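Late entry, zinc ion complex.
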Amino acid sequence: MMSQAALQAEKVIGHGGEATTAQNVTNPGNSAEYADPSGEKMKALAWMGKNKVEMIECPKPKVMEPRDVIVKVTGSTVCGSDLHLLHGTVVELQKGDILGHEFCGVVDEVGSEVTKFKKGQRVVASFQIACGECFYCKQKLSSQCEKTNDNTIENAMYGGRTAGMFGYSHFTGGFAGGQAEYTRVPYGDVNLLPLPDDVADEEGLFLSDVLATSWHAVVDTGVKKDDVVAIWGAGPIGQMAAEFSLLNGAKRVIMIDSNWRLDFVKKNYPNIETIDFSALGKGESVTSKLREMVDNRGPDVSIECAAGEYAKGWAHYFEMMLGLETDTSELVNEMITSTRNFGSCGITGVYVGFTNHFNIGSLMERGIRLIGNGQAPVHKYWESLLKMIQEKQIHPSKMVTHRVSLDDLDKVYYKFEEKADGMQKVFVETKWSFPASESSPPLTRY
Ligand SMILES: NC(=O)c1ccc[n+]([C@@H]2O[C@H](COP(=O)([O-])OP(=O)(O)OC[C@H]3O[C@@H](n4cnc5c(N)ncnc54)[C@H](O)[C@@H]3O)[C@@H](O)[C@H]2O)c1
Ligand SMILES: [Zn+2]
Ligand SMILES: [Zn+2]
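Prediction complete; structure with ligand written out below:
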């Protein structure tokens, strides 16, 4: 309800006018301005309403602006963030919006002012759309670009805005995503990174989001040598944040979750410790358990890689349902009370708006440094992360449990949501994909 009200308000108020690229181009079928004149059609995954996504057929997008690149998608995936769209917790989605913010592919067409890319080149896109020239872009803080999203609701709610993002609602500019056979990439020279021959799509794809996000969570929250790090949420972001914490010198990492993902962690990262919060004894809490595990004091650094929509208790569940808050404070409070005095806490899981019962007292009295990590600035890190893949320091395909087909992606969304079939990170192939690399799981059809 709130999501649709925000969308209506946006229509009435209008945009801020600061964007230098077209806004609300979430489906090439919505406007002749956006559809390729060849009449070629493509398959894509679209949001059709709360808890409903569908495979659709729509026109291939065209070069609308001179700096556009049209990418033929050879690999894409589903992110924990897509669940916030599916559930309608991220506001301002419109029926028919094409989703997906992590994709790689081959350059299909370039606009007249594109200098870095030619047809046929392999590339990966960043989840955010940046102009490359504004105050934030100059510092590679690409997720906060000032020129690609002029949504007024986001500005009013947050006192500032993020960059535009692929497949992430009109709240972030309204751009069609990469869970499709083609995607239009504005400012292609800026938002695409060439993929070298020795990096397969199954590894390079994750430079779009997961790798930069988890790396940023770790360095931005300030993990240092010999730190003990606690991570809430054992999904792909949490797992990579754990790996990156160790790479940055952490001496122990403890992950907190409540399902089979913890078994996945135990099997794949034997040196990482876990807490299953659903199996805690009477009178025990995550905070008391962490204190007991870490010198009766608690971790030095805590990182939230879950999300504000996942209430643990009835109180927040109802408050959220009744619109009294948009996000639960339970996870953040747990981080604050668990972390040692003067330690730091970072929030990378998505939070949408306002929360009740925030433990500001513990934060203030004990000197906890609470850091909003922000949408991660991918451009700041993706070149060095690519090098780490090439040097085999990291193996992103370790996260991938399934290879699926774009044709089945609507069904995959629901499996992913339920964490069914041991599904974690998927590699989505399209009709343009290269033969599967050695690291790929076999194709599963749904
Ligand atoms: N800041 C960014 O730039 C950025 C980028 C990508 C993803 N994200 C966000 O990061 C979060 C994690 O992404 P993901 O792809 O790993 O998601 P995911 O949904 O696969 O994993 C989230 C995990 O959190 C666990 N969880 C839920 N409630 C919990 C609780 N109370 N305590 C501990 N764990 C709990 C879930 O069981 C799940 O395993 C999502 O919110 C996603 O939107 C942020
Ligand atoms: Zn994501
Ligand atoms: Zn910019």
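The chain has a mean pLDDT of 96. Will revisit in the morning.
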